[in-house]
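Hey, quick one: can you model this chain's 3D structure?
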Amino acid sequence: MSILLDKTLRLFLDSIGRREEYEFYLERFQLGNQAAFALLVPLYEGFAESAAVFAFDLHFLLRLGLHPVVFLCGAHASAMAALLDAEEHAFVFVCWRADVPLDALEGQLQEASAAGHIAVIVGEYVDVREGLSLLVPRLTRRVHMIRAAGPLHREDGKPLWYYQAQDPVRLVPADESIAKIAVDALHLAEGVHISIASPLNLLAELFTVKGAGCLVRRGVRITCQESIGAVDRGRLVQLFEDSFGRSLLCPACLDAAARIYLDADYRCAALLEPQHGYMYLSKFAVHRAARGEGLAQELWRTVERAHPAIFWRSRLGNPFNQWYDRQASGVHTEGSWRIYWRGVARQDLPAVIEAALARPLDFAVDPLSAS
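Sure thing. Here's the predicted structure for all 371 residues.
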């Protein structure tokens, strides 16, 4: 069911991303059971020029019924608070020191939220690392660090959309310290989400799967099994049905999979079957709650390295087709299907296209991804 929003809010969100995406995140944020759906941590450099944009972001979130907590920290916290206060939005400023009991702080944050305001913690004597160690996951598990420079950048100046400590990538020197703080924050608790974005792109970062900042993440380990009997069939079926939003018509058809790639938590999976001398990608899924974490790209890279020659199909109108277009070396459209391939010899294309078209439906209703 679509979320009820007034026309102005809906039009603005439509300009940010697809409706099914922003409705998914909006519902997820509204149903959260923590003190705040997110902790927003603006950094001082460039804040004077971006304070008005950041204040607009906060006002828009408030109109959506969302109450993030803003954390201003370090020696410039009071100056940043004054810049926000000048924007004349519904802010409540809460001065905080690290030795103040968190119960007292939480009480003030709850009062601000109940009054329809956004709470701004002003921690002039608390640095960002110490503040995150105390506030996460107590207040929330979602942290967005906001800075005028936007996402992290490679040494060559190119922006990074995903970063993990194990990546063999060198950052511009100015970004190394914030990257270390963000990586350390990941280990404060399971399920911590942390990203680095510009205030110009904060709303797109919040409400789209692709995001618009740099997601800092733990490494994900994708394993490969050669038999469906080696995995938890129930969890795998649940992953596919949750991901596609549809019931699987024939769970027994999973037995045909000769390669099953998945992560330990069953948040993503890919199934491949041997067909006409190639591997057919029969399922490729990322759980809805894990989208935007870069799992699809990690899963795809694993499959691509192991199987340079594959083919698959996807329904016309599938919102993921743009992504599939970038992964494929060729595509054929027929009826209600798009047939994709990589590494398939030209003389074999008619056979693999026919095989893909002839496959029965996997889901009770048109799926939202490859099937």
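One thing worth noting: The longest strand covers residues 278-286.
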